[in-house]
Amino acid sequence: MGRYTLRRLLQLVPVFLGTTFIVYALVWGLSDDPFAGKCGQRECSPAYIATMTERYNLDDNILVQYLKYLGALLTGDFGQTFSGTEVSSLIATAYPVTIRLALVALLIEAVIGILAGIVSGVRGRGFVDSLVLVSTLFLISLPVFVTGLVLKQVLGVELGIIRTSVPNDPSFGDLLVPGFVLGSLSMAYVARLTRTSLVENARADFVRTAVAKGLTHRRVVGVHMLRNSLIPVVTFLGTDLGALMGGAIVTEGVFNIRGIGGLVFRGILQQDTATVVGIVVLLVIVYLVANLVVDLLYAVLDPRIRYD
Amino acid sequence: MLGESGSGKSVTAQTVMGILDAPPGRITAGSVRFRGEELLGADPERRRLLRGESMAMIFQDALSALNPVYSVGFQIAEQFRFRRGMSRKDATARAAEMLDLVRIPNAKQRVKEYPHQFSGGMRQRVMIAMALALDPDLLIADEPTTALDVTVQAQIMDLLDEQRRERGMGLILITHDLGVVAEVADRIAVMYAGRIVEHTNAATLYARPAHPYTRGLMDSVPRVDDAGGVRGAPLRPVPGLPPSLTAIPRGCPFHPRCAYAQDVCVDEYPPLREVEEGHAHEAACHFAERFVAEGPDRPATQEVVSG
Lengths: 308, 307
Ligand SMILES: Nc1ncnc2c1ncn2[C@@H]1O[C@H](COP(=O)(O)OP(=O)(O)OP(=O)(O)O)[C@@H](O)[C@H]1O
Ligand code: SF4
Ligand SMILES: [Mg+2]
What we know:
- The structure holds two protein chains of two kinds.
- The mean pLDDT of chain A is 83.
- By secondary structure, chain A is mainly alpha-helical.
- In chain A, 74% of the residues lie in helices and 0% in strands.
- Chain A is built from eleven helices and no strands.
- Chain B has two domains: 9-23 and 46-175, 3-Layer(aba) Sandwich (Rossmann fold), CATH 3.40.50.300; 188-223 and 235-294, no CATH class.
- Chain B has 14 helices and nine strands.
- In chain B, strands 6-7-9-8 form a four-stranded antiparallel β-sheet. Chain B has a three-stranded parallel β-sheet with strand order 3-4-5, sandwiched between helices. A two-stranded antiparallel ribbon of chain B has the order 1-2.
- In chain B, strand 1 and strand 2 (37-38) form a beta hairpin.
- Mean pLDDT of chain B is 86; it is low at 302-307.
- The interface between A and B is medium-sized, with 23 and 31 residues.
- The site of iron/sulfur cluster has 13 residues of chain B, from loops.
């Protein structure tokens, strides 16, 4: 297991280099002239152009630029925006908010999704099962911004239960509703995945063996059916963390959350390459680490997967 | 318990154990008695407590019957922990003893391993260890050796036989292999289309089979006794196919395949009844007495058909 983990960590290196290089090259390549529109209506002054060319190594070819960027990154230097703000300080304020939001969403989708899946999967056809199937279908068919705007309008504006604009350093409670909105689609998938997986496993021979051993129904379901059924669910949840962070932009917009979504959005509009690349690089890292954790968890949940 | 594939052997065993999938399974009639106690309709909790403790079951495919994500030790120890209230440590020690009992080498080590790490024969031994854990009075073995190769089959049968003897335990062996039954069974029930069609002790069954289906089965394997059969006689499978249990023929369910079928067989269902006074010999055939009287010198089914 130790060696497997090490090998997986090493495998992350080329993936990391490849993805970040592509992002770097794409963002700088967005327009032919990196200074277009940078200085309002006027042409940029030669002095400004000289400073920026120096700051972003624009005279080098793209590969060298990237390598220089990477070198700085390894020392923790994310570079500066065109206006001279340290990207790392932008990230330091925005990232924790989005991570918190994504984790709340993940928690909600895991807890509610799995519980709903278990209840409908174990009970079998009936009212609860139909309720879960219909409500998840409902959530799946609604775009996230609709769910978000409706909840904001109803809970925030009409009922006044939640604040329509989330404060700068949001608490867990502040993020509950946005987290629900962000996680709602995946929550529906988790519920259905858990349900299907349980129903499939219920007919498995080893479940019959567990019953034949005279174990209680609770133990048969909770120990013998659940663990096997949760393997695909855990995989889904792990890979979903990265997707949630990347997809947080809409939810953040709806609830005025100052996370990376708005930062990236503004960065792209203003062609502020350093910001965009910095944020995406971190997203890639989150994604890769989450995947690694899933793979390791997989080995813990299913001993047939052997990593040596 | 003997019968072709699909004749309802497993369903019957599961009904006895109370582990029939319901739905789709449904029990419409009949009776299962264990030590005089009627089990059909008994309190589900009562039935659960009987499982493992009084009656246990092992299955044909040990690989799928064992939970792939828990160690074999965990799965055996589970019964000691949750039925006997033992601590995890004591239970695991007992699990290792059970593995040792069924002669799995290196039991202390292997108790931590997972089902996929065992060979087919060893896995079936694990199943047996698990079934014997709570020292049941009755063990139902549903085709325990079908998935194994011949030498391993013999070892598993020996192990079952030995444990049965040592524990004074009842063994219901389900098989479609007449050879296996002949060696171990005291009494044999032959099943056809979901019902028992003949039931008696092994010697009587071999000497005087009362049901044409039983005869057919015997003609389809090499004779174990030298008394009757012609040496080197060709093997004759029972002609035709077993019926789908969703469309059982009316009258005698065997009549479409029976060489002796008469009009009455198509119209009237022959119930299982005593056919030989004093031999506890039951059969479900209108002409059972005739076949019993013919004894071992019966003509083969096939000869009757072609003649
Ligand atoms: N008493 C019954 N009434 C109605 N249907 C039955 C009955 N017994 C068996 N069946 C049907 O026949 C199917 C096969 O039965 P079962 O699995 O018990 O056969 P088997 O004798 O164990 O066959 P195999 O040798 O292949 O294991 C069952 O799935 C069930 O649908
Ligand atoms: S009742 Fe008739 S059809 Fe059925 S087994 Fe006997 S002879 Fe054959
Ligand atoms: Mg069977």
